[in-house]
Amino acid sequence: QVQLVESGGGLVQPGGSLRLSCAASGFAVSRRTMSWYRQTPGKEREFVASISILGSFTNYADSVKGRFTISRDNAKNTVELQMNRLKPEDTALYYCKSMTDWGQGTQVTVSS
User: Fold this and answer.
1) With the C-alpha atoms ordered 56, 94, 9, 84, is the resulting torsion angle positive or negative?
2) Cβ–Cβ < 8 Å for 79, 34
């Protein structure tokens, strides 16, 4: 059974950093394109970042390019999202996605 579990969210001040982790079970993250999305109340879920199967290609939303980095740890079977220089507008529920499978989300709040 496929399961995705996000962790690492929390409250951080503007300009700070957080590292999100998505632990996968039921499949190997090395064999799937993995993505992060985020959603705020009343808005559509939006794409944040993705990493290809071989890890040689990453893609980012313009709003996070240069600040966020997606990576995968095949030994731990996790996908990480390093978020730097966080802004209040990054506040959202962050989800991990693989094909049609979603995690439950982890809340990120950027506020002073």
Assistant:
1) positive
2) yes
Count the residues in the chain.
Answer: 112
Q: What is the mean pLDDT of the chain?
A: 96
Nearest to 99 by CA among 26, 42, 43: 26
Structure tokens at 64: 């996070």
Beta strands 106-110 and 10-12, pairing class: parallel
Tokens of 37: 């999305």
Q: What is the pLDDT of residues 29-57, one digit of tens each?
A: 999 999 999 999 999 999 999 999 876 79
- Cα distance between residue 43 and residue 41, in whole Å: 6
Strands 68-73 and 78-83, sheet pairing: antiparallel
Q: How confident is the model at residue 26 (pLDDT cuts 50, 70, 90)?
A: very high
